[in-house]
Each structure stands twice: as C-alpha cells, then as structure tokens.
Write a structure and sequence with these properties.
The chain contains four helices and two strands. It is mainly alpha-helical and 90 residues long. A hairpin with a 5-residue loop joins strand 1 and strand 2.
Length: 90
C-alpha cells in the first residue's frame, strides 16, 4: 500500500489522526474513508473473528439438520415480540 505523508493542514483536519473522516474531492464525491489506527485495527480484528470457521459452519448445519436451533421465521417472530415489548415500556 502506498503511503501519504500528512502535512500540517491535513493533520488539523484529521484532529491529529484521531478522528474518522470521509475524504471527498472538490465536487463532494466520496473518495474514501480515513480511520485512526486503533479503529482500523479493531475493525480488522472484529471482521476476522466474525467469519465462522468451516468447523463452526458444519456444526451449525448438523445441529439444524438434527432439529436443533431456530428457523429464520422463528427468529423473526421472536424479534417482533421483543420489539413490541420494547415499544410498550414506559
């Protein structure tokens, strides 16, 4: 990956590199996103661990085939119940 050296003006816009920023061209077209290093590392870590392993996928498939787990319809119905209960709270 190519490196860009931030000058003083850019560092001020990025709050010294501590602020997430959407980078646009003069017409407002989004060119990309800037994330501080800690945010980037956390995102990569979360993403890497969000992908289930082949063993985990196989175990889930086996459980569902054996009648365990819940169908998508059952999960959606439960979420609807929770949402309704949440809206009824004072």
């Amino acid at each position: 990956m190519e490196r860009v050296i931030a000058d003083t003006e850019l560092l001020q816009k990025l709050d010294g590199g501590n602020k997430s920023v959407v980078v646009c061209d003069a017409s407002g077209q989004v060119l990309g996103q800037y994330l501080p290093e800690d945010d980037y590392q956390r995102l990569m870590y979360d993403w890497a661990f969000a992908i289930p392993s082949a063993e985990a996928r196989e175990a889930a498939r086996t459980e569902l085939e054996a009648g365990g787990g819940f169908s998508t319809i059952e999960i959606a119905a439960r979420f609807a119940q929770i949402r309704l209960a949440w809206k009824q709270k004072p």
